[in-house]
Each structure stands twice: as structure tokens, then as C-alpha cells.
Design goal:
Blueprint: H1 6-13, H2 22-27, E1 29-32, E2 34-37, H3 40-45, E3 51-53, E4 56-57, E5 67-72, E6 78-84, E7 91-93, E8 98-103, E9 111-119, E10 122-127, E11 129-135, E12 138-143, E13 157-161, E14 169-170, E15 174-179, E16 184-186, E17 189-195, E18 201-205, H4 212-232, E19 239-240, H5 242-258, H6 274-279, E20 284-287, H7 291-299, H8 304-309, E21 315-321, E22 324-330, E23 344-346, E24 351-354, H9 368-376, E25 384-387, E26 393-402, E27 405-406, E28 409-412, E29 428-433, E30 442-451, E31 454-464
Parallel strand pairs: 19-21, 24-31
Antiparallel strand pairs: 1-18, 2-11, 3-10, 4-5, 5-6, 6-7, 8-9, 9-10, 11-12, 12-13, 13-15, 14-15, 16-17, 17-18, 20-22, 21-22, 23-25, 25-29, 26-27, 26-30, 28-29, 30-31
Helix pairs in contact: 4-7
């Protein structure tokens, strides 16, 4: 490795006093990897082989002496390339696939291949680089799953081929694909793996690292976006809690392994864990390409966003595994505090650029299983919520207006919840438009009710995106 890492520091600090057995010594420590192009069998089985790029910084390796941002041009399949500092290339016409080679530092100057293609007005990039190596008879392929041009980050993973396997796949074409924080089991012992960004070297550890730095790197942009949302309400930013991240990751892995978002874990099912099962009922779950996208999508949810925006929570854990994001927010103790606060609305008063539609397939469904088919037949409007400190809310009446026209909407409250499994409706009044909100419209909201035995009324407005 070109520099000592916190993994290497941990390895030295935790080294046993007695010499390890020869077999163990051959596993723990540094190993060489062979960079290459992603094996076609592995590529075919990946959940997300590409990602959409619009005005997106490619995030090249720091050794590359310029930054590149791509954005759509005026013609079909034309994309502008902005470089800083400027170089001669100003645009790229993409009729199909184009390979662009960039070099990592290192002895072999490995070329990193990016495939760029145009589709439905968006730009897609897939990094088809990987590094392979052997460890005690196992073959390992480290894959750039988050397509950021670097291996070994917390959004990446590796594929395992056991000594008994002839191919990378087994059974019905399945891959033994693992997140970077998951250990490799060899002869009944667990080992944790670290790979440098260029994919040249592997470091094997016999004790689980804390992963604090990698978790912070993965969650940094997502937490910044969430902090910006909370700041609008006058609430403090949430602190990342590493102790909450591990069970979030375990539950995300459970959801991936079982093919669904779930608020429970059933013992005996693939990737069940006690830590994930304990956290699952309180978690916010969503399919997303990254944690940052997860925060954006959860803002369009109904009840899951209330967990993240509540003034009663102070810390958060995040887990992201192969397109599934799990977030869990808590107060200073094991649960949100009971601190009082003023009822708050979302979207808040005078909000601008509000999305027109909400999140489909939310878990738990805000209208219950009976209404899920009607709710999901076509996109509903962006959900509007008024959150109270307690569920002592009765006699709710509400209006949703654009100009002189009242918009049709579902109305639920603590007194009349939309889902019987949520008897207090998260102490919130929900107005869920039955259709997407009009574009570029000023939407007015009126809510009248009894709160804690006293009359309560709130009026506010917001403007939707001009789409």
C-alpha cells in the first residue's frame, strides 16, 4: 500500500503476542492483486451495472490531473464534457458505446475502462474494472459496485469463488457477492479484507475493523442533504452513530438476500441476524442507487421521512447494500425523546421546487394493504404531513387547493389512520393527493382539528416544480 491506513494501524495494534500458525500467517497480511476487466459472468449477475449521470462529476482518481463533468448536449446522444483545467475536448457524440481509458498510479499503470452510453436523454457510465486474487485456494474478484472509479470503498464489494467451484456462479446462476464489510470464512475463521483504490494490493485482517472512516465517507453527502432539510425546520443535524450503522447494514443485506423491503427479519431466512431483527421495525427502508439518493427518495415518503425529520432524534445509522438503503434515527437514548415541539408541516410554508409525486411502494404503506393497489395503480401526489408531538389529535378537517380548485386527496390522522398497523398514524395528519400535483403551481393547505383538547388551525402554501 502506498500509505498506512487505519486498517493497518489496527492490525499492528491488535497483533497477537505469540506467532501465528503457518497457515494463518499465509492468510493475514498483504497480498498482490491483478487488475483487469470485469468478468462477463459477474457483470451479467450484478444488480446495477450502470448509473445515470447528469451534471455528474466522474470522481476520478486524485492522480488524474483534471476533473470531468458530463451533461446532455442539444442533439440526441450528444453530451458536453467540461474539464477543469480546460483541455481540447469540448464534447462527445455517443452513438453507442465509447471506451475512455484513464490511468491509475502504480507499477503497471492500470487502464481503467469506462463505458459511456446515451439512453432516454440521460448519460450512463459503468466502470468495468475489477481486481482478482487468490487466498488459501479461494478466488476473489473485487468490483467497483458504486461506479466511482475506485475499488474497496464502502459501496463496493467482492465476489467469492470457492476452491470447489469451477465457475464464478453456482446453483441457479447465483453469485457469492459480499459487501466490503462482510468477512470471508476460511476453515471456520473469519477474515476481513481491505483493497487499495487502484486494486493492486489486498490486506487481510483477522479482527473486524471499526470501519468508521469508510462509513463516514459513504454517508457524508447523504447526511449533508438531510442536515439541510432539518435546518429549514430549525432542527439540529443528526450525528452519524457507527454503533447503529452495523445493524443497518445487516438488515439491508437481509432485504437484498430475500428480495424485498421488510420491517421484520424471520429466523431461518438467508442473512438473518439478531442485530438486524432488533432494528428492523423502526428502520426507514428504500431502494436507491446510493445513500444520497435514499435521502432524496425518503423525503417523498409519508411516515419514513417523519422519523428522519423529527426534532426528537439526534443520531442516525446508515446501511447500504446493493441498492437497498436502511436508515435508523434515534434520540440520546435507545428511542426518540419525548421532548415537546411545535407541530411542523412538510413541505413547509413557502417551500419551492417541491416534487409533484410521492414515493411508491413505501414500507409500511400509508394506506394499508387494502388501498395499496389503488394507491400504486398510478403515481400519487407528493405527500403533505402535519406532525404533532403526540397523537391527541381529533376532529380533523382539511383542504388542498390550487387556485379555486380543491384537489382530491386521501386524509388520514391519529383518530382515523390509513393503515390499521399504524394505530396512531405517527402522530401526523396526512393529505395524500390522488394524482400528481400540478406543475409550477401554488398549493394551499388548510388543517383544522382539536389538539390536546384545544382548537388548532394551520394554513400554509408551497410551490411545485415547473416540470
Amino acid at each position: 500500500m502506498s500509505r498506512p491506513s487505519f486498517y493497518a494501524t489496527l492490525l499492528l495494534a491488535s497483533a497477537p503476542l505469540s506467532a501465528p500458525a503457518p497457515a494463518q500467517r499465509a492468510i493475514v497480511g498483504e497480498h498482490k492483486l491483478e487488475p483487469g476487466i470485469l468478468h462477463p459472468t459477474i457483470e451479467e449477475e450484478l444488480d446495477a451495472p450502470s448509473r445515470a449521470l447528469v451534471d455528474f462529476d466522474l470522481g476520478l482518481h486524485p492522480s488524474v490531473p483534471f476533473a470531468v463533468t458530463l451533461s446532455p448536449g442539444k442533439r440526441e446522444n450528444e453530451f458536453l464534457i467540461r474539464c477543469e483545467p480546460a483541455i481540447e475536448i469540448s464534447r462527445l457524440i455517443v452513438p453507442g458505446l465509447v471506451n475512455a481509458k484513464l490511468l491509475y498510479p502504480g507499477r503497471k499503470k492500470r487502464p481503467v475502462r469506462f463505458e459511456i452510453s446515451g439512453s432516454a436523454g440521460a448519460l450512463y457510465l459503468a466502470s468495468h474494472g475489477m481486481s482478482t486474487g487468490k487466498l488459501a485456494g479461494f478466488e476473489l474478484a473485487f468490483v467497483d459496485l458504486d461506479h466511482d472509479g475506485a475499488l474497496g470503498t464502502f459501496g463496493d464489494g467482492y465476489v467469492v469463488k470457492t476452491p470447489k467451484q469451477r465457475q464464478w456462479t453456482y446453483g441457479a446462476g447465483e453469485l457469492d457477492q459480499r459487501a466490503m464489510w462482510q468477512p470471508l470464512e476460511i476453515e471456520g475463521r473469519s477474515y476481513w479484507l481491505e483493497v487499495d483504490r487502484g486494486g493492486f494490493e489486498l490486506v487481510v485482517h483477522e479482527r473486524e475493523p471499526e470501519f468508521r472512516e469508510l462509513r463516514e465517507e459513504l454517508a457524508k453527502d447523504a447526511l449533508a442533504d438531510l442536515a439541510a432539510l432539518r435546518k429549514r425546520l430549525g432542527f439540529e443535524a443528526l450525528a452519524l452513530d457507527p454503533a447503529l450503522c452495523a445493524p443497518c447494514e445487516r438488515h439491508a443485506l437481509y432485504c437484498v438476500a430475500n428480495g424485498e423491503l421488510s420491517l421484520v427479519e424471520e429466523q431461518g431466512k438467508p442473512q438473518f441476524s439478531a442485530a438486524g431483527a432488533e432494528l428492523a421495525p423502526r428502520a426507514s427502508l428504500v431502494y436507491a442507487a446510493s445513500l444520497r439518493e435514499a435521502v432524496e427518495r425518503l423525503e417523498a415518503s409519508v411516515f419514513q421521512r417523519l422519523r428522519l425529520l423529527s426534532p426528537r432524534v439526534t443520531r442516525i445509522g446508515c446501511g447500504f447494500v446493493r441498492g437497498v438503503a436502511v436508515l435508523e434515527a434515534r434520540g440520546p437514548g435507545e428511542a426518540p425523546s419525548s421532548a415537546e415541539f411545535e407541530p411542523f408541516a412538510w413541505p413547509m410554508d413557502q417551500a419551492r421546487e417541491v416534487a409533484r409525486t410521492g414515493l411508491l411502494g413505501e414500507v409500511p404503506p400509508p394506506l394499508g394493504d387494502g388501498a395499496r393497489s389503488a394507491e400504486g395503480a398510478k403515481a400519487t401526489g407528493f405527500p403533505i404531513t402535519l406532525c404533532f408531538p403526540s397523537a391527541a389529535v381529533t376532529g380533523v378537517e382539511a383542504k388542498l387547493m390550487v387556485g379555486e380548485r380543491e384537489l382530491e386527496h386521501y386524509l388520514t390522522s391519529p383518530e382515523h389512520p390509513g393503515n390499521a398497523e399504524l394505530p396512531e398514524n405517527f402522530a401526523a395528519v396526512l393529505l395524500l393527493p390522488t394524482k400528481p400535483l400540478p406543475a409550477g403551481a401554488e398549493v394551499r393547505v388548510e388543517v383544522r382539528c382539536q389538539y390536546a383538547g384545544k382548537p388548532f388551525e394551520k394554513r400554509w402554501s408551497f410551490r411545485t416544480r415547473a416540470e
